[in-house]
Amino acid sequence: MQPFTVERTVARPREDVFTYLSDAANHPEFTDHFLRDWRMTREETTGVGAGGRFKGKLPFARFPWGDWTIVELDPPLTIVLQGRTGKFNRIRTLTLIELREAGAGRTRVLVTIETQPVYPSDRFLESLGQRSALRRHWKRALRRLQLILEEDRGRGERATIAGGPRKPASRLSA
User: Fold this and answer.
1) Of the listed ranges 14-18, 86-90, 111-115, the one predicted with least confidence
2) How far is residue 118's CA from residue 38's CA, in Å, rounded to a whole number?
């Protein structure tokens, strides 16, 4: 799929927005309307290597599970998420989140999404409306992100870690 970009201005400083978005456990709070059943892939949910697995809600998605991992952080400018989705996780995904100053403590959030389907059948299913649905869902996600950061309302649930409590030395033990 050709990349597309959605954007929104948030009335918060760029550093605050970057801190919020660089924590992978926060993403389900604003994307849970189309990415559900989130599970974090490791205990430490911030920084490079943090990521999640989720079930997407897109039209004609026969294999809705996907995942992504934070592969690059350039504080407070960019966050790069790389992942896979589809049958046998064969469709690569790349999500680039750019944060730009918009003056007076405001931040312009730009999210660029690109997928690389392998087979013609994957490209065909994307052409049946997945691209437009994905764009619509990300526009709504950025509106929810704006509500969360500006007014502290409209939050979904934070993700849990797959497998439950860990070793007794962690904060997550029962």
Assistant:
1) 86-90
2) 25
Question: Containing domain of residue 71, as a range?
Answer: 4-105+117-155
Name the CA radius of gyration of the chain, rounded: 16
- Give dist(CA 141, CA 136) in Å, integer: 9
CB atoms within 10 A of CB 121: 12
Give the model's pLDDT for residue 166: 57
Structural domains in the chain (count): 1
Residue 108 is which amino acid?
R
Task: Give the pLDDT of residue 152.
Answer: 84
Q: What Cα–Cα distance (Å) separates residue 12 from each residue in 3, 9, 124, 154?
A: 27, 9, 40, 16
Of residues 105 and 154, more confidently modeled: 105
Edge-to-edge strand list for the sheet holding 35-40:
4-10, 107-116, 91-101, 78-85, 65-74, 51-56, 35-40, 160-161
